[in-house]
Amino acid sequence: MLTLISTMRALAVRQQSGEALRCLHLTAVTEAARKGTREKARKKKVKVEVKKVGFIPHNQRDKKINVKRADKHVDDSWKQVPKDDVYVGRYYRWPVYTVAEAIQCHRETHHPTMYNVPNASLNVEIELNMQGEKATRFVDNFQRMAMIPHKFDHGEERKIIVFTKGNEEIVEAREAGATLVGGVELIKDITAGELLLSDYQFIIAHPNILPELVALRGLMKRKFPNPKSETLGVNLAEMVVKFSNGISYSATKDEYQQNFGLIKANVGTLDMDAQHLEENIRFLLQDVNSMRPKRDGRFITRVLLKSAPSSEQLKIDPFVYIPEFYDKTAAKVSREAKKEAEPEPQSKEAAAASN
Q: Which residue among 62, 259, 281, 292 sits deepest, i.e. has the most Cβ atoms within 10 Å of its Cβ?
């Protein structure tokens, strides 16, 4: 075998006429080939360090794998309507209840003879279509506070600090239930470190103290009062009541399905009056609907009422309280009303005069 390899370094070609041999040397070519082969062999010999990883659950493994996931938007309009009370649920449409009927069903399951939790919380799950105005755009996650007409024990500590000038505004905020109310002297105490803003969950301000409040922008960061979050306004009493008694909720997009959003909120307890619970749900749905994008189609797709420890979830019709589709005329009117309600920006001369 070695003899054969060595003889291949010179290829002898004999001509048919019987002339002398002509040698064709391929030494450079074979050396180059051997060099490349050796480099490949060296690369193979390099040890690859394998990092030992502990057990990873199947739902947390490599997210780059393109797994076909089920659409979270439930559309059962193609299914048939059940004709009696006994049927297999997955083959038929979800039954739609009124709010009063759903509350009564939950009260029956939480009766002392069953779960025995008559004062259980009534929770609402709102499913959203987060599709934006364009096909490639989606509504960002948002967090809001919905004002409700009938307060209940939400089980949260909500301390509210209010910044304003003027004796009338200070008295108004205190009577509404604010934890701490003050003006320039309050800003000085915070700057000196005598008062911590982290002790308060909500910060509300009147436009008349905005020039002085700018000094605390670095400390407040995202909590700095602004009209979009409805923490800056003239009607301090309404804002204080809203943030002390309102429903705090957040809409979050699904990690794998960007056009699906979900809101979970508590609207009261089962021992409250059914009409009061219904009004709280109506105010919550109207507040959520105010965030809808300017496009055709539904924004709120499905609403379910739940009450732990029962696993029962009852579907209600949200379009009794809000419009089903986007109305351009109504949206224009609401935008104009918001502009009229917003306080006018204070001029430099007015700010100097107030100082």
A: 281
